[in-house]
Amino acid sequence: MKSIFISGMAGSGKTAVALGLALKMRENGLAVGYFKPLGSSRGPGSAADEDVLLFKQVFDLQHGPEVISPVRTGPYYLSGGIRHDPAPLVQKIRDAYNTVTQHMDVVFIDSSYSPFTAASLGLDDIRLSMLFGSTMIYVIRIEDDYSLDKAIFYNEHFRLAGVPVLGNIFNNVERTILDKTRGVYAPLLEESGNRVLGVIPKRPEIAAPTVAEYYDKLGGELLAGEGHLDRLVEEVVVGSMTIESGLKYLRRAPNKAVITGGDRSDMALTALETSTSVLILTGGLYPDVGVLARANEKNVPVILVHYDTYTAIERLHEVGRRIHPGDEQGVRIAATNISEHCDWQKVLSFAKGELGTF
């Protein structure tokens, strides 16, 4: 049995890559399993991790979510006292892993929030990979030259720790840097000794978050548009400029989130006359009733948050599109992305024991 650990930063699309690869492995006759040692949690009693529910549905996995993802984490996971003795958690993860891998040819292990999550407990991606004897695939969220530096740094760190790396996948690459990724970033990564398995262009249907995912990350108050949280957000525009200078940006950006102060009714109303998916009002300042009336007419959700614009932008940066259980289109696109843009045959050869690693 082979295990492949899918690692990457938040928002890189790790789960979509794992899903697409797993579908290709099943299509080629392999028994495929899924494991997410650290599931996400919003607090006690919260629902099971949606990635786990997705894989359980698509692959008809026999074990329950509590076995497929035995440990829950969140931004404040250390508050419960588990830092004093993580050994029971390690044993719980090991036992669950041994259960879900029975009778499987290959198991895809899904990373948590980032490669460094739970490092204080010895449960980061590197040490979990070593615990399972896994091979790593690193999913890159490429935004600029620093993103490539980060990818090279992590690849080197994996190898120095003794974790074999099967390769890297550039995922959800924006059209504006697609040629640079193919012509500059990918060759540089290969030249540094790191295999590139694919470059996947961004598809808004699967890469663009929904308003619901933004609301889930931001919290705050939903003032309008409760029935329209499924709208896609393809761009984010900060409405801090004058109406005259900002109008050209607002018109140019389709399906956007507009972040502005609650006291900027002029900017909010102008944004509502363009292709806007959601208004995010910062500073805890309630907008003019005219803004909410127009938003309801346009079916545009309005979210009020009680922190500043910079904090809102930082939080939105962590949001990535998730494929939810029942999202048949998202599942199809994940499979198509792997078929058309990745060297999945190398992954298949590895899963069959025919290929080594770097």
What does this protein structure show overall?
There is one protein chain. The two termini are 19 Å apart. Residues 42-46 have low confidence and may be disordered. Helices cover 42% and strands 19% of the residues. The chain is built from 15 helices and 13 strands. It is globular and about 65 Å long. It is of the alpha/beta class and 358 residues long. It has 2 domains: 2-207 and 323-351, P-loop containing nucleotide triphosphate hydrolases (Rossmann fold); 211-316, HprK N-terminal domain-like (Udp-n-acetylmuramoylalanyl-d-glutamate--2,6- Diaminopimelate Ligase, Chain: A, domain 1), CATH 3.40.1390.20.
CATH-level-4 superfamily name of the largest domain: P-loop containing nucleotide triphosphate hydrolases
Q: In percent, how helical is the residue content? A: 40-55%
DSSP helix count?
A: 15
Radius of gyration: 21 Å
Q: What number of structural domains do the residues give?
A: 2
CATH architecture of the largest domain: 3-Layer(aba) Sandwich
CATH topology heading of the largest domain = Rossmann fold
The pLDDT mean sits at: 88
Structural category is alpha/beta
Q: Unreliable runs, pLDDT <50, ≥5 residues?
A: 42-46
Distance between the termini: 19 Å
Largest sheet: 6 strands, parallel
User: How many strand segments?
Assistant: 13
What form results from the Cα inertia axes?
Answer: globular
Across the major sheet, the strand order is 2-5-1-6-7-8
What is the CATH C level class of the largest domain, in words?
Answer: Alpha Beta
Helix/strand order, N-terminal first: EHEEHHEHEHEHEHEHHEEHEHEHEHHH
Strand content: 15-25%
